[in-house]
Design goal:
The chain is an all-beta fold and about 140 residues long. The strands form two sheets. It has a five-stranded mixed sheet, with no helix packed on it. It starts with a strand and ends in a 9-residue tail after the last strand. About 10% of the residues are buried.
Length: about 140
């Protein structure tokens, strides 16, 4: 199984095999205070499966680590996709996924990473920086 691409977005969904993405491919979030809660963060991925990989379970694991290597999220699921009967022989099957995290909590600023593993093998690490940005001081007119 191949991870064709993976990135973060403000929002995304999969409809009829297509990805619809809003505000994608960033690696930094600016927050005004800590701890911070981010309303919606979406992990967008597309896997490519060979005919031999279709129709059987694959263990998908998403791990979010802080800069100290502490796990703050550990999601596990089974990915089992049947091959459509109308697919061309020998071609890879595209499997788009939009995984939403609602009210993601970040307790401290720094570097985080989102690790994508399939069947225990790491396929990609996506960096995410959390920066503390104070609101601008009010000016008198």
């Amino acid at each position: 199984m191949e991870l064709d691409f993976a990135f973060l977005a403000d929002a995304a969904e999969v409809t009829n095999g297509k990805l619809y993405v809003i505000g994608g491919a960033f690696d930094t979030l600016c927050v005004r205070e800590l701890p911070a809660s981010w309303p919606r963060l979406t992990l967008v991925m597309r896997f490519l499966l060979t005919p031999a990989e279709s129709g059987r379970p694959h263990a998908l694991e998403i791990i979010v680590l802080d800069e100290d290597g502490k796990k703050i999220v550990n999601l596990s699921s089974s990915l089992n996709v049947e091959r459509p009967p109308n697919m061309l022989s020998g071609t890879k099957q595209s499997v788009p996924i939009a995984l939403n995290f609602f009210n993601a909590r970040f307790d401290k600023k720094g570097s985080y990473s989102i690790e994508i593993l399939v069947n225990g093998t790491s396929l990609k690490s996506i960096p995410l920086k959390i920066l503390l940005q104070k609101p601008p001081a009010e000016t008198l007119h």
